[in-house]
């Protein structure tokens, strides 16, 4: 909700949080750019940074996208697609460079005809405090090129078999980080990747 990972080692964040994110992310080699939009607690004034970047596309309710994000995406040649769903990042589970899972029919329709394969699942079956249900994209994130991690147990989701088969078709493995039903935490955004090698001497 507060930060957008633009790729190429850049993130754009809510201006009041710029100093905080610089202190945490700059030591990791991440360039932190302050956005223009100050967030409020109510929709749609809380969605400015909740953008889904899929392949060479960025999906969002563009009337409320942060201006600095729009500028950066345009400079990098990313096609910006307007959708009705403001919580776009939360609504889109990115399985691979050209593959997503969503329960939002508007997003699925917007991606139709593009080089992105979409698996549409049922709404619900995801916990979100204070709401009837959460979104699939808010439960997960790629933590490696071919490894999709979930907050909760993905096997407990009603559409698990379809999601697993879809991910397998795109050479992506699924991993559950905790037990119980999936929980919408706003999504998992990868910042740094470490590869650890060890030898088994037994």
What do you see in this structure?
The chain is of the alpha/beta class. The chain folds into 2 domains: 1-86, no CATH class; 90-192, no CATH class. 19% of the residues lie in helices and 25% in strands. It has 5 helices and 12 strands. It has a 3-stranded mixed sheet, sandwiched between helices. A 3-stranded mixed sheet has the order 4-5-6. The protein is globular and about 40 Å long. The protein starts with a strand and ends in a 26-residue tail after the last strand. The mean pLDDT is 93.
Note the main attributes of this structure:
single chain; 202 residues; 2 domains; three-stranded mixed beta sheet; 5 helices; 12 strands
């Amino acid at each position: 909700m507060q930060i957008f990972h633009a790729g190429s080692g850049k993130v754009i964040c809510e201006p009041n949080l710029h100093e905080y994110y610089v202190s945490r992310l700059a030591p990791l080699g991440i360039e932190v750019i302050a956005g223009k939009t100050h967030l409020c607690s109510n929709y749609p004034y809380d969605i400015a940074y909740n953008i889904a970047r899929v392949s060479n596309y960025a999906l969002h309710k563009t009337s409320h996208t942060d201006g600095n994000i729009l500028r950066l995406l345009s400079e990098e040649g990313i096609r910006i697609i307007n959708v009705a769903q403001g919580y776009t990042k939360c609504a889109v589970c990115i399985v691979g460079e050209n593959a997503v899972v969503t329960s939002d029919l508007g997003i699925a329709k917007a991606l139709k005809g593009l080089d992105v394969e979409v698996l549409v699942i049922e709404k619900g079956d995801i916990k979100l405090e204070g709401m009837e249900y959460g979104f699939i994209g808010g439960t997960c994130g790629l933590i490696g090129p071919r490894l999709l991690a979930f907050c909760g147990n993905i096997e407990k989701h009603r559409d698990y078999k379809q999601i697993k088969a879809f991910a397998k078709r795109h050479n992506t493995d699924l991993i559950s980080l905790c037990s119980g039903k999936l929980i919408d935490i706003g999504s998992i955004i990868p910042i740094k990747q470490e590869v650890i090698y060890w030898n088994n001497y037994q």
